[in-house]
């Protein structure tokens, strides 16, 4: 029997690089399963993380909750394993973790850092291949960018789809060599050139 697992952690990360680091560390702590989905969420002016997966045998709820609380001392932590919930941390960060968990569960918003099919699509491939090979349901062009199933998108090494209206959507734009993701790996701060 499958058991749902939902975990959220708010460390107060101030930027995308910092919250991505939290995701990768959290995946090291809890392990990686093929159906793991990790999303980041803006909460109270900073970023929090939520993870979910379905496992045939979930870890012992008390053990997983204790492991997370120990690994993230001073952070907001929510661990919901098969209906057993554990919460810990300062109230402001716990509120952020609870908000991230709710948004993740509702698929209402958030950017996905880990998701089914991610390693296989982080290369050049058609939009149809992205949708067929991952949990991405839609590829949407911004600013009038035309997207067809045959359009080639360059996701080499980096793809961060988002949740919108319960669907996993990859936003793309026109780049020098065709379609590229809207969010790129190397972010420049706004107005950094002047």
Description:
The chain has 194 residues and is an alpha+beta fold. The chain has two domains: 112 residues, Alpha-Beta Plaits; 64 residues, no CATH class. Helices cover 27% and strands 36% of the residues. It contains five helices and twelve strands. The strands form three sheets. Strands 5-4-1-3-2-6 form a six-stranded antiparallel β-sheet, sandwiched between helices. The longest helix is centred in the middle third of the chain and has 16 residues. It is elongated, with a radius of gyration of 17 Å. The model has no long low-confidence stretch (mean pLDDT 88).
Compressed to H and E, one letter per element, the order equals EHEEHEEHEHEHEEEEE
Given the helix and strand composition, which structural class is it?
alpha+beta
DSSP summary, beta strand count: 12
Kindly provide the radius of gyration, computed on alpha-carbon positions and rounded to a whole number of angstroms. 17 Å
CATH topology label of the largest domain: Alpha-Beta Plaits
Low-confidence stretches: none
User: Do you know the CATH architecture of the largest domain?
Assistant: 2-Layer Sandwich
Q: How far do the termini sit from each other?
A: 57 Å
Biggest sheet strand order reads 5-4-1-3-2-6
Please give the largest β-sheet.
Answer: 6 strands, antiparallel
State mean pLDDT (0 to 100 scale).
88
How many individual domains? 2
Strand content: 35-45%
How much helix is in the residues? 25-40%
What is the count of DSSP helices, taking H or I runs of 4+ residues? 5
What is the global morphology? Answer: elongated
CATH class of the largest domain: Alpha Beta
């Amino acid at each position: 029997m499958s058991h749902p697992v939902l975990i959220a952690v708010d460390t107060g990360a101030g930027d995308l690089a910092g919250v991505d680091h939290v995701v990768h560390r959290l995946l090291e702590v809890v392990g990686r399963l093929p159906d793991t989905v990790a999303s980041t969420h803006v909460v109270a002016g900073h970023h929090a993380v939520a993870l979910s997966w379905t496992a045939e045998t979930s870890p012992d709820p008390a053990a997983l909750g204790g492991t997370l609380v120990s690994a993230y001392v001073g952070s907001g932590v929510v661990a919901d394993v098969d209906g057993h919930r554990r919460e810990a941390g300062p109230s402001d960060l716990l509120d952020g973790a609870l908000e991230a968990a709710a948004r993740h569960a509702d698929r209402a918003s958030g950017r996905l850092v880990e998701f089914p099919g991610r390693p296989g699509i982080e290369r050049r491939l058609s939009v149809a291949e992205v949708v067929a090979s991952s949990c991405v349901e839609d590829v949407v062009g911004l600013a009038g960018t035309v997207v067809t199933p045959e359009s080639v998108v360059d996701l080499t090494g980096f793809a961060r789809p988002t949740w919108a209206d319960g669907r996993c959507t990859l936003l793309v734009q026109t780049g020098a060599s065709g379609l590229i993701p809207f969010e790129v790996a190397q972010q420049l701060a706004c107005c950094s050139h002047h």
